[in-house]
Design the sequence.
């Protein structure tokens, strides 16, 4: 009989005995702290409806998880076999047991990856799976999970409380009705907050841009026929988000370029976009201009501005046309920050009302550009390693490269940035283990004393994120 599947209690700690002992002590102090999740992509409908459930094991672990799907696809598993619905009506697998079998057949490909760590933690710690998933036990494990998912104790709301989540922020389109957030807010049981994501109404090349503008106008109660109306609608929607507890906005861009246009130029480009006549140059200039406008609005309303740059979305056009976006085919590109952000930071970087959190997929910029920017401009904080680098090695590289120039207090702690709700505690646990082990290394080399390391471990776990996003502490309620 194979040994019981379990997690190494010292995982991610140094093999050096003294550092490992120190890491254990630091981790013990933060392991059970509540989770502050200031940025992610959990569907608020899961938590707004008390009767909501996760669905089948395949719906929970495979179909919506682009981390899982992209790696399985890289090993030759067709996306259609993973149960992902198609846009064009072409066939895809509807039998979730068969989807799960494909996942189990290839579970070994996650060895040594952060997804492998998260999946093992969730299966073992949350759902009590005792045998390592493989092709031979796939259906037995599926039955075990399906039975658990029927229990009230495994509903999204029950797990929210079991996970000790203090606050969870979602990501919501500028024209979203926010009906689920209204329900959550009126009920007052769970602290779930929206985050304003305007990309679909800012980037002119977005498919359906004109329809998106119509929806924005309808949500704001403004007939958008001019650039002035457009700006008023965005400001109105930000106010609605803030009234429902939002403390942040979120902006995705290939480039962090900022450029101020004259009002007449912005108006002309916007009108061309409404007519379907805007070109690539128009789109690039308008996005750069709107980055400055979003910063200006953040100064006015106090919403923290997150900027995620450096991802070329939907690299595989065939995948996009058949399965839609967010299926794993987004690829990092080189990013330049120093010159691109200069107009924005010269305008707002010293303003005490402004806060800008920077995330990148170009690690080469950590020490060369991002840490020096955060180490000078009061408005700038560094978001944690993101997406492909939300991993044990990625976290260590980030901490090594930014801490000496920017200082840890100019970072924003940890964000799980996930759609996979059940992986939230696993992801935060990885960060807490890695950061405690990294701090223990500084203690061992005499760069920190134990008291400083204890304080920093708690800051890394909760405090930095709480203050960065104005979710509590000295900078917000």
Sequence:
């Amino acid at each position: 009989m194979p040994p019981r599947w379990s997690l190494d209690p010292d995982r991610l700690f140094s093999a050096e005995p003294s550092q490992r002992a120190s890491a254990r002590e630091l981790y013990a102090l933060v392991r059970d702290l509540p989770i502050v999740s200031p940025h992610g992509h959990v569907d608020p409908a899961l938590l707004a409806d008390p009767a909501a459930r996760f669905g089948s094991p395949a719906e929970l672990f495979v179909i919506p998880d682009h981390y899982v799907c992209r790696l399985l696809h890289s090993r030759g598993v067709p996306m259609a076999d993973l149960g992902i619905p198609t846009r064009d009506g072409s066939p895809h697998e509807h039998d979730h047991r068969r989807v799960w079998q494909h996942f189990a057949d290839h579970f070994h490909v996650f060895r040594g990856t952060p997804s492998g760590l998260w999946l093992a933690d969730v299966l073992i710690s949350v759902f009590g799976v005792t045998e390592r998933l493989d092709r031979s036990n796939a259906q037995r494990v599926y039955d075990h999970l399906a039975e658990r998912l029927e229990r009230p104790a495994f509903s999204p709301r029950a797990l929210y409380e079991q996970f000790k989540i203090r606050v969870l922020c979602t990501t919501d389109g500028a024209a979203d009705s926010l009906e689920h957030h209204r329900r959550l807010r009126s009920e007052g049981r769970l602290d779930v907050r929206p985050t304003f994501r305007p990309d679909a109404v800012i980037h002119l090349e977005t498919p359906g841009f004109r329809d998106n503008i119509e929806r924005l106008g309808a949500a704001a109660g403004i007939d958008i026929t001019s650039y002035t109306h457009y700006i008023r609608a965005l400001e109105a929607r930000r106010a609605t988000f803030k009234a429902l507890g939002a403390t942040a906005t979120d902006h995705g861009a290939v480039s962090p370029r900022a450029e101020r246009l004259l009002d007449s130029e912005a108006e002309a480009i916007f009108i061309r976009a409404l007519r379907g006549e805007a070109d690539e140059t128009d789109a690039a200039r308008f996005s750069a201009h709107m980055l400055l406008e979003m910063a200006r609005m953040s100064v006015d309303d106090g919403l923290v501005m997150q900027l995620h740059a450096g991802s070329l979305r939907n690299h595989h056009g065939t995948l996009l046309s058949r399965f839609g976006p967010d299926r794993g085919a987004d690829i990092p590109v080189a990013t330049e920050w120093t010159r691109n952000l200069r107009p924005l930071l010269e305008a707002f970087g010293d303003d005490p009302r402004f806060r800008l959190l920077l995330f990148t997929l170009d690690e080469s910029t950590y020490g060369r550009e991002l840490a020096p920017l955060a180490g000078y401009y009061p408005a700038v904080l560094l978001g944690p390693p993101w997406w492909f680098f939300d991993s044990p090695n990625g976290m260590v590289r980030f901490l090594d490269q930014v801490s000496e120039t920017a200082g840890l207090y100019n970072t924003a702690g940890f964000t799980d940035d996930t759609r996979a709700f059940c992986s939230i505690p696993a992801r935060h646990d990885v960060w807490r283990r890695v950061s405690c082990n990294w701090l223990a290394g500084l203690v061992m080399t005499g760069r920190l004393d134990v008291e400083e390391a204890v304080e920093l471990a708690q800051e890394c776990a909760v405090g930095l994120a709480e203050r960065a996003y104005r979710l509590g502490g000295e900078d917000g309620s």
